[in-house]
Amino acid sequence: MRVNSKSYPHPVLGNEDDLGGFFRVAPFHYELKKDEITLNPIFNLKNAKIEELIRDGKASFVTEVECQSTFFRSSYSTRKTIDRFMIPSKLVRERVAVGFYVCADKDIPGYQPSECHPDYEGASFDVEAGDVLAVGGYTSFIAEKNFDPLRPPVSSFMSIVVGSHHEGPMQIDYEGEKITVILSKTDWQSYMDVRGQKLAEGMLHASIVFPVLIDAVHQVQNGNGDYADMSWFGRLEAILDGKGLRDKDPFDVAQKILDNPVSRGFQSIGSLLETNDEREYE
């Protein structure tokens, strides 16, 4: 789960090394249903002062939900470490961003955080209601009932189309809602001849999808802002988070997502050779 460093007027847990302890949301589950989406965060907090503020009713765990496609934005607060929040499905679509915080519920004059970095030792701060006290990271999910990040179809984030060039290498376009692989007219005809055949799937994944996916995973892991608003970017983020691959090597990640495409490609070749051998002896 990503955490972005920001500048705050007071020390914030989870923002670089401002405070000792930790605040994270793990695990974070969500359920996609026809009429509603249920969020199930589990808040894990360790910081004596912030824990005290929550117990005293002066602060709460906050889950902030934002969907750029529909301009929906809302926050849900609780003092429970385990809670559920429901969002009407019609309010969001495509990529939905989720952020986790601890925020002040009321003004806290003279706030003295615990486990401070030496730069803040002995200092006090006037915190206002709504101010952030802890950052627990950010994640996202795809608000599409048929999209499963644990078993994602390649078609959910990538498409293959024919280009205007007659021959030449394939090209990649990251500027659309899906990653677009552009084949020459010659290669496109070859692709059309085998597309949809079970034996060809492994070879197509190994030769076309696999190298493109390696680069796409690299773009997501580096947080490339040029593509962050694209649907494919959000879908790949959801896949990486769902499979626990956020910090793994892109080469290994692509193999796991495609279920060992090179091995499947060799199996396909072997099956085709066996079929040809059988025909020779008919």
Question: What layout of secondary structure does this protein have?
Answer:
Blueprint: E1 22-32, E2 36-46, H1 48-55, E3 59-67, E4 72-78, E5 85-88, E6 94-104, E7 108-111, E8 125-127, E9 132-143, E10 158-162, E11 171-173, E12 179-183, H2 185-194, H3 198-221, H4 231-242, H5 250-257, H6 261-280
Parallel strand pairs: 10-12
Antiparallel strand pairs: 1-2, 2-5, 3-4, 3-6, 6-9, 7-8, 11-12
Helix pairs in contact: 3-5, 3-6
Summarize the structure.
This protein has 282 residues and is α+β, with helices and mostly antiparallel strands. It has six helices and twelve strands.
Query: Over the alpha carbons, how many angstroms does the gyration radius reach?
Result: 24 Å
Strand content bin: 25-35%
Which stretches are poorly predicted, pLDDT < 50 over at least 5 residues?
278-282
- Subunit arrangement of the protein: single chain
Order of neighbouring strands in the sheet with most strands: 4-3-6-9
Number of strands: 12
User: Tell me about the biggest sheet?
Assistant: 4 strands, antiparallel
**Helix segment count?**
6
Which of globular, elongated, flat, extended, rod-shaped describes the shape?
A: elongated
SSE-based structural type: alpha+beta
Q: Give the % helix.
A: 25-40%
Q: Output mean pLDDT.
A: 87
* N-to-C SSE string, H for helix and E for strand: EEHEEEEEEEEEEHHHHH
End-to-end Cα distance: 58 Å
